[in-house]
């Protein structure tokens, strides 16, 4: 796949991911763990949730980069544009708020599947993982603790912290952890995608290859 197509795939993934997040937010039965944290921090700082998402991503990727993990162009685009697109979608009010528990469950499920499909899109091109995934991998490499345990510990921590700051915690928060696992397995199986086989290209390699293409 040529470079412009890879970037377009990343951008499509980013837009869909932002849409998926907003759909889960408007389900109103409990935000997903990171959204609980973002919403809680947005409540404390009186900022838009998308803006908080950008700020948290920047902090995490700075820590990750300082410890030598690969940072790709998709990582940077992920940090900046998911939050911005979330703000735009929320401001446009194009996603309806669920009016019942059943409607919320359906909306939460749809949103999570969209987020997972979006994750597949931008991970599959090998231009870098999102800041939260990269941070999880960093802790795994440094501690040797299993990725699944690390992910659970991180999500428990951000959920509790976010709830204490006023982020919406509910039965949908717990359910989202179950649904997202099913969604990941389903989407990755459909597209025969194994994220462990992807060798991500860091920023240096990206700009070096672009320079080589101009010189040739």
How would you describe what is shown here?
The protein is mainly α and about 220 residues long. The chain has one domain (about 5-215). Helices cover about 75% and strands about 0% of the residues. The protein contains 9 helices and no strands. The chain has helices at about 5-25, 35-45, 50-65, 75-90, 100-125, 130-145, 145-165, 170-190, 205-215. The protein is globular and about 50 Å long. It starts with a helix and ends with a helix.
First-to-last CA distance: 19 Å
Tally of helical segments: 9
Which percent band covers the strand fraction? under 5%
- The portion of residues assigned to helices is over 70%
The best one-word shape is globular
- Total E-strand runs: 0
Supply the number of structural domains. 1
Q: Report mean pLDDT, rounded to a whole number.
A: 88
Largest sheet: none
- Give me the secondary-structure category: mainly alpha
pLDDT below 50 for ≥5 consecutive residues: which ranges? none
Radius of gyration: 17 Å
Could you spell the SSE succession in H and E letters?
HHHHHHHHH
């Amino acid at each position: 796949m040529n470079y412009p197509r890879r970037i377009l795939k990343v951008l499509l993934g980013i837009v869909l991911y932002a849409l998926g997040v907003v759909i889960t937010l408007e389900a109103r039965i409990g935000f997903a763990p990171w959204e609980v944290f973002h919403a809680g921090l947005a409540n404390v700082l009186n900022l838009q949730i998308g803006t908080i998402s950008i700020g948290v991503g920047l902090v995490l990727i700075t820590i990750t980069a300082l410890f030598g993990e690969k940072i790709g162009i998709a990582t940077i685009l992920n940090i900046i544009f998911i939050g911005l697109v979330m703000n735009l979608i929320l401001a446009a009010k194009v996603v309806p708020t669920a009016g019942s528990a059943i409607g919320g469950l359906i909306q939460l499920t749809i949103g999570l599947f969209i987020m997972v499909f979006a994750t597949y899109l931008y991970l599959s091109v090998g231009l870098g993982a999102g800041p939260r995934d990269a941070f999880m991998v960093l802790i795994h490499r440094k501690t040797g603790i299993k990725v699944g345990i690390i992910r659970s510990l991180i999500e428990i921590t951000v959920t509790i912290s976010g709830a204490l700051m006023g982020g919406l915690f509910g039965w949908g928060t717990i359910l989202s952890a179950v649904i997202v696992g099913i969604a990941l397995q389903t989407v990755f199986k459909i597209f025969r995608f194994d994220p462990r086989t992807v060798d991500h290209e860091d920023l240096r390699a990206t700009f070096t290859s672009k320079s080589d293409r101009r010189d040739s």
